[in-house]
Amino acid sequence: QDVLINLLDTPGHKDFAEDTYRTLTAVDSVILVIDSVNGVEEQTRRLMEVCRMRDTPVIVFVNKLDRDGKYPFDLLDEIEKELNISLHPLSWPINMGREFKGVYNLYDRSLLLFTPSQKATEENSLPVHDLADSILDEKIGARDAAQLREDVELLEGVYGTLNTEDYLKGKVAPVFFGSAVNNFGVKELLDTFIRIAPQPQGRATDKRFVSPEEPRFSGFIFKIHANLDPRHRDRIAFLRVCSGKFARNTFYRHTRLEKDLRFSNPYSFMAREKDVIDEAYPGDVVGLFDTGNFKIGDTLTEGEQLQFTGIPTFSPEIFKELVNKDPMKTKQLEKGIRQLTDEGVAQLFTQHGGNRKIIGCVGELQFEVIQYRLLQEYGASCSFVPLNFYKACWITGDKKKIDEFIRFKQSNIMEDKDGNLVYLAQSEWFLNTEKQNHPDITFHTTSEFKTALQ
User: Fold this and answer.
1) Could you tell me the pTM of the whole model?
2) What is the pLDDT of residues 435-447, one digit of tens each?
3) Which among 4, 109, 348, 374 counts the fewest CB atoms within 10 Å?
4) How far apart are CA 347 and CA 363, in angstroms?
5) Residues in CB range of 80: below 8 A, 6 or more apart
6) Residue closest to 98 by CA, chosen among 68, 72, 64
């Protein structure tokens, strides 16, 4: 079973690329990691918005209980308010910071004791089916035992028993507490996840709905990564299997290019390890060596001509003009920026009728990533000039009206890497004004419109 574990609220992950969002189209469930010290952060709010678009089941893990953070009940209120989802605690902490003693698992009625600077083991877990048991006072002290009993009584009175169907529909998010760096509370979360997580789900296409039980293979590309191993200049496309069985050395139909492809070395990935696989089934993610055949959203089948939908590109929030600092490396820069934008690291907009290039990202750090990778992987040096744009909108509608609009807004009209027209609005006021003045033109903030036009 596939799952996306969100680590965006942890140190070193304060920025992210759009492909994080797009990965949500390939998974059937998400584990959100919330920092107990800082609470809900902006990137998690955005991620949750995408989860709601597909009613993706979500489990919340409140991290860093070994540090002094926000009061647990206050955290629950904040998460419900900020992420607009109902919560259901399945574990509960006993103090936090220096006084942190462990968590009580409400799902299987067990007590997990915390020992500072040590990884959690099975010896730290004690079955406590009755909170009135004196072993609770013995292990965590009478004061904390009394507080735990009071908290659990309140939780059970407010939340009752978890309705698994509500979780699977994305209406309720189970909540666990722990400390990931100490591997504390993680096993309990994953054990529960295995029991309640959804089975691989079907997917919509432009022709019909594909069920995971279907015997014929189908799948789509949701992520591309160039130079995963810089020594080999490889490019890997990640395929989500949606139905049937994927088999090594078998020809499959690339529906966009309308040609058959065979893959002799498909890989499965686990952290830094990768292994050649012979078969894969619905819910599995397979890495395919790519020589430039794939784009995000491409579909592979056993012959049926269809295209999976629901793999959108979102409007960036930060825009900067790309400046080539070394004209002698123009070809390298063009190749590098094309491959990086194919990955989803950023979006590339080219001036309509010109050569001006604008990069759009959802996070400031991505521009540093692009600069570094262009220099290290392609030998191309560049800089960025900040631009004052609010949002990128793909435009569709009556051709004459669009041509007239382009004539008056030439400096704001771009093309994405697929040649679609894009309007860069200076502000929300400008965008709303253009919508009112041009009712025959539709302004799209995601690329989902392309599916509707097919």
Assistant:
1) 0.71
2) 999 999 999 988 7
3) 109
4) 12
5) 86, 87
6) 68
